[in-house]
Design brief:
This protein has ten helices and 13 strands. About 40% of the residues lie in helices and about 20% in strands. The protein folds into two domains: about 120 residues, Aldehyde Oxidoreductase, domain 3 (Alpha-Beta Complex), CATH 3.90.1170; about 160 residues, Alpha-Beta Barrel (TIM Barrel), CATH 3.20.20. By secondary structure, the chain is an alpha/beta fold. The longest helix is centred in the middle third of the chain and has 33 residues. GO terms for molecular function: nicotinate-nucleotide diphosphorylase (carboxylating) activity. Pfam families: QRPTase_C, QRPTase_N. InterPro entries: Aldolase_TIM (IPR013785), ModD (IPR006242), NadC/ModD (IPR027277), Nicotinate_pribotase-like_C (IPR036068), Quinolinate_PRibosylTase_N_sf (IPR037128), Quinolinate_PRibosylTrfase_C (IPR002638), Quinolinate_PRibosylTrfase_N (IPR022412). One of its GO terms (biological process) is NAD+ biosynthetic process.
Length: about 290
Amino acid sequence: MIVLDDATLLGFLREDAPYGDLTTRALAPADRRATMTFAARDALCLCGVEEAARLLTLIGAEARPACASGAALEPGAPILEATGTAEALLMGWKVAQTLMEWASGVATAARALTRAAHAVDPDVAVACTRKAVPGARALSAKAVLAGGAGLHRTGLSDTVLLFPEHRAVLADDGEAPLVTLDRQIRALRRACPERTVVVEVKTPGEALAAADHGADVLQLEKFSPDQVAALVARLPAGSPARVAAAGGVTPDNAAAYVRAGARVLVTSWPYTARPADVAVTLAADRS
């Protein structure tokens, strides 16, 4: 699946080489051909190979992916081979490499987090937020999905999430906080009857009130695993409200949050992952 359109990919090339590759154009005959191969230098979860192949195709190369996004690769595993003019390959080289390294870094992090959570309970959802780098949301979403995680929300238009900021800014004059919470949850149910109502809370009291007023999901902001466990223990028996832990979730504490009773782990952590290391080899094609 390619999530970046041709115009976006060509824009990446224009940013890096607005007037072509001056060094290669000065040195290489126009008909000089070459081969370029990409391989995993370290173990990684691959993402972005489809975009890299398409980018190279757009500048006249023939690209042959060895695997697809989501593949778990060992060091040395082949990713992509391309043939074409030396000028085309050298111009597309770094853009294609960087795109795969960045996306694979996010995918690898998402896989590590998901595996840590699923080692305790395979039914727990790991959901990555919309807090990706602006302009990179589509590729970020592809990367976390390639890593086995899910999407918390792709944007403000697709889910209902009632933040404390909504409750503060949109409260009626003189209205008590719990009255605001109850009124806003009821208003959301009327306006969006087919949507799950998620309420972010910052204290146990807010969480219990939200559950009492019918929230489907209690999103516990920056609760520790111990605080999550204490809150879960205080929910009424048979409460339909699901508990989501949000803020500061990493592979190091994911298992603790799951054991505490969180059914959803909400995280932005993969987006700050170190890029994966993709090795590139270029060689003249003498055939």
